[in-house]
Design brief:
Two copies of one chain form a homodimer. Chain A is α/β, with parallel strands linked by helices. Chain A contains ten helices and 16 strands. In chain A, 30% of the residues lie in helices and 24% in strands. In chain A, the strands form four sheets. In chain A, strands 6-9-7-8-10 form a five-stranded mixed β-barrel. Chain A has a three-stranded mixed sheet with strand order 13-15-16, covered by helices on one side.
Chain lengths: 346, 346
């Protein structure tokens, strides 16, 4: 059996946030939005997973509150492949739970963990990188997919390598670096020895669970109990990210560079960059003298006259107009709405 | 009987245009919008007229297509005081028809002709100026109300005086000057001897109809025939403005300066200036870093982040975002929509 035949995909379908308000809401977070194409980011992730494995090896983990929405969005998802978190607890518990569930099913499985709210333009390149990662995982590594930085971003964690990464090869990760300040980020960019941590992982499940038991024994025990049918154990599970709970402390961590048009779509500005690649999306638009202005959502006619560089987000009950340069700051609007008691639109 | 007891008001409720698209539509032109206050401009004009005369001396002239809307907007308007133009023909025919109708009712009447799509903030000052105009009209003058320019506007006609205008007095008008270019407008502003022609007039109706018969005999005959009950005569009535048809050629034209917070609200920018004086109008708004940005229409929540100096116009089927500096250019959007065949939203 080749590593690829043991491969299972775990789609992380949880995740919430306010960066895409008002298109995203508490009940319809970012992964359900069509921010970069005709289908939702979650559905695009499913379609990508289908290029890797058959449906019976695609698992999706989501908190209970989103389970029905996930099943609607992914009609081919088998109900017995939906791993439900009793409540949201960040990435470490979600991934540990899914891996524990799969381990009961196929102890020799390799898992590819995929966030559902990123865009990856080049599926062929992605497939090739996952194949490389599978081989490294078969050899025992906990494999990250890493993105070569094209700017000194301060919004990502970085993976430190001993040398420049080689396309098509796994390299050892020397260190996980949390989101750096601008000066360190510029140094990382210049050095060429750092990759962004994209939150995608490939590993043998047995190996991962051993590592989990070693570095986070409580979390391992609790999630194993939930996987074995005792959902009550979830109550004591902390909210904690995988990087913090496991990866920073783990041994034999490797990275394969991914050059496949990846973007985490972290803001309206990023979504606008992608939307610009797809002219004609959405409803009727009339733009005059408004270079770089992008409209999302809505079936209404939207006209813009001499207002360049903004994003217009049109939904039935709320409208946002924001400068693309300010798109990291949507939380200021959300905070104002919270203090106005307007949870009805959040 | 004092001149004021003979006063009748004629509200010009016709008028169309695209400057306030998408809030204004073919079936709901500017005068029906609440651009500067809680009530429509038309209703505010009615309320102002009521400060001058009792309801039985308020006449409203409107094309047939708007008659029902006018009656809805002005519930106190007597049906027998609604003068219906069989079709829109610009100001000269509308005013001539209304004056002919009133003449049959009260030949000694004085008429104050009031457009319905301007704003006048100071009703007391307005009343005082109309009283001055009435006395001058009683003496035989065709009286215009003139606005002292506060900028070298090129969008208005100007009235040339022999000397600086005196508040509270009528001065002879030496010349009607059509919309000037920027250089002439600056010269007019500097000289202090020019007033904007605000399209408001006061005259003895008998005197006006004599002047009309003298300078535009065809128009006089046709509109008198319609007033006498022969609507077929309207077919031959040309589209022509009062200034062009009558005022430029008339003798004994005078002007009383009006200093009463007048604005013709010629663009979204002008409307935004007035809206800014009335905080809290409209639905819920959240503005962050968006100085000078104003939202019109809509009951939806509208949030603006770091986009200063724009107007957002929110309607159920169309949304406009425009730079206040570009607000003279809404026709470019309307033209684009026309060429797209989107008459449904015009």
């Amino acid at each position: 059996m080749s590593p690829r035949d043991r491969l299972h995909v775990v789609i992380l379908a949880g995740g919430s946030g306010t960066r895409f308000w008002p298109l995203s809401r508490a009940k319809r977070p970012k992964q359900f939005l069509s921010l970069a194409g005709k289908v939702s980011l979650l559905r695009a992730t499913w379609d990508r997973a289908r290029k890797l494995v058959p449906v019976e090896r695609i698992w999706t983990v989501a908190p209970r509150a989103l389970a029905a929405a996930v099943l609607r969005e992914l009609p081919k998802l088998r109900r017995d492949r939906l791993v439900v978190e009793p409540s949201p607890r960040d990435t470490a518990p979600a991934i540990a739970l899914a891996c524990s569930v799969i381990a009961r099913h196929d102890p020799g499985a390799i898992a590819a963990i995929l966030p559902s709210d990123h865009v990856i333009r080049d599926t062929s390149a992605f497939k090739r990188v996952v194949a490389v990662a599978c081989r490294a995982a078969q050899g025992g590594a906990l494999v990250c997919l890493g993105i070569a930085p094209d700017r000194a971003a301060t919004g990502f964690g970085y993976l430190k390598l001993g040398a420049r990464p080689r396309p098509g090869f796994a390299s050892p990760v020397l260190e996980f670096v949390e989101k750096p300040d601008a000066m360190r980020a510029r140094r990382f960019l210049r050095s060429g020895r750092y990759l962004w941590n994209a939150g995608m992982f490939v590993w043998r499940i047995e190996r991962f669970l051993e590592e989990l038991a070693s570095v986070a024994p409580e979390l391992h025990r609790q999630t194993a109990a939930v996987a074995a049918g005792s959902p009550g154990a979830w109550r004591r599970v902390p909210k904690i990210s995988l990087d913090y709970a496991v990866m920073e402390k783990a041994s034999d961590v490797a990275v394969v560079p991914l050059d496949a048009g990846w973007d985490d779509l972290g803001s309206w500005d990023a979504a606008a960059r992608h939307a610009s690649l797809e002219p004609g999306r959405g409803g009727a638009r009339v733009m005059v003298g408004s270079e770089g202005t992008v409209v999302f959502g809505g079936r209404r006619l939207v006209a813009v006259l001499d207002v360049p560089g903004v994003v217009v987000v049109d939904t039935p009950d709320a409208l946002l107009v924001l400068s693309r340069a300010a798109s990291e700051r949507t939380r200021e609007i959300v905070q104002a709405l919270t203090s106005l008691g307007r949870e009805d639109v959040l």
